[in-house]
Write a structure and sequence with these properties.
alpha+beta; Aminopeptidase
């Protein structure tokens, strides 16, 4: 069943129905996604760290294997397709990992992509809106992510949604957006 929300603009009190919805990624989509994702991530590593592509591919493959030891059904990993509501066309994906430590729950975005033909049309913003609503409903305290410094488009998108940089590395930024205040006990 799709995850679809009616969003309300608090200033105008107008309702609107998003043009996209999130659906759980199927095994078929996951299998098609995984190889491309590792390749894309390796290219990001190579570009950000000035490494040769072979070394970056080895690192990317190892990192994916560590996080996804049993693929799509690895614990605390949530994969969604981004689907156009009107045509039921998959136009992208988003994946987050749930981290739960000492009553602090964080949805860490591991990968997020809108297909090139659908970029710069607001679908990335709607995907982030839907993800924020979904994780907030599940009592998650924050959403975190890492963005490469050279990806200024992504950085601008996350800043638009009030993600704050909390750590800078030579290759990028760790960012976080608070949703629900954790109860520290």
């Amino acid at each position: 069943m799709p995850v679809t929300f009616v969003l309300v603009n608090q200033n105008t009190r107008k309702y609107y129905f998003p043009m996209i919805h999130l659906t759980k990624m199927t095994a078929i989509h996951f299998d098609a996604y995984l190889g491309k994702a590792i390749e894309r991530y390796a290219n990001e590593i190579a570009q950000s760290n000035n490494e040769d592509l072979h070394t970056a591919k080895v690192k990317a493959h190892e990192q994916f294997q560590d996080v996804l030891p049993i693929g799509l059904t690895s614990p605390n990993q949530y994969f969604f397709d981004v689907v156009l509501t009107a045509s039921d066309t998959t136009i992208g994906m988003i994946w987050y990992m749930l981290k739960d430590k000492n009553n602090f729950k964080e949805a860490f975005i591991c990968d997020f992509m809108i297909n090139e033909d659908y970029q710069n049309q607001g679908f990335g913003s709607q995907t982030i809106e839907q993800l924020l609503l979904l994780v907030k409903e599940n009592q998650i305290n924050a959403v975190g992510l890492f963005v490469f410094k050279h990806n200024q488009t992504a950085l601008a998108l996350y800043e638009k949604f009030n993600f704050q940089i909390y750590r800078s590395t030579p290759s990028g930024f760790n960012m976080r957006r608070w949703l629900n205040t954790p109860s520290w006990e």
